[in-house]
């Protein structure tokens, strides 16, 4: 059985203030697993995943700083970076 992917979640703006740190390394194979780990280690960021299973509309999430994702089922690979920021940061396009 293989080990889950090692992923770095970087926090910007309000998420950074709530997390109390700049980044967090987690083991996760999907965005949902990564966000669940963030919520566990940074309880002030509870609610990252909305009841429908998507990223909360209060946040934006970029994969490797290249494209925004909403699907929490997006697969991750070791070395991926997720950038979490407030949705009020403005103008973006979602690419799955």
SSE blueprint:
Elements: E1 6-11, H1 14-19, E2 23-27, H2 31-41, E3 59-63, E4 67-68, E5 81-86
Parallel strand pairs: 1-5
Antiparallel strand pairs: 1-2, 3-4, 3-5
Features:
96 residues, alpha+beta, disordered C terminus
Task: Walk me through what this model shows.
The protein is an alpha+beta fold and 96 residues long. Helices cover 18% and strands 25% of the residues. The chain has two helices and five strands, in the order E-H-E-H-E-E-E. It has a five-stranded mixed β-sheet. The longest helix is centred in the middle third of the chain and has 11 residues, at 31-41. Residues 91-96 have low confidence and may be disordered.
Describe the structure concisely for a colleague.
With 96 residues, this protein is of the alpha+beta class. 18% of the residues lie in helices and 25% in strands. It has 2 helices and 5 strands.
């Amino acid at each position: 059985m293989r080990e889950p992917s090692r992923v770095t979640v970087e926090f910007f703006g309000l998420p950074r203030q709530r997390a109390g740190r700049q980044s967090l390394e987690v083991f996760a194979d999907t965005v949902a697993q990564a966000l669940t780990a963030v919520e566990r280690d940074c309880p002030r960021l509870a609610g990252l995943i909305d009841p429908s299973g998507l990223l909360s509309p209060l946040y934006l999430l970029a994969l490797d700083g290249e494209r925004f994702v909403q699907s929490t089922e997006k697969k991750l690979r070791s070395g991926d970076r997720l950038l979490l920021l407030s949705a009020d940061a403005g103008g973006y396009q979602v690419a799955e």
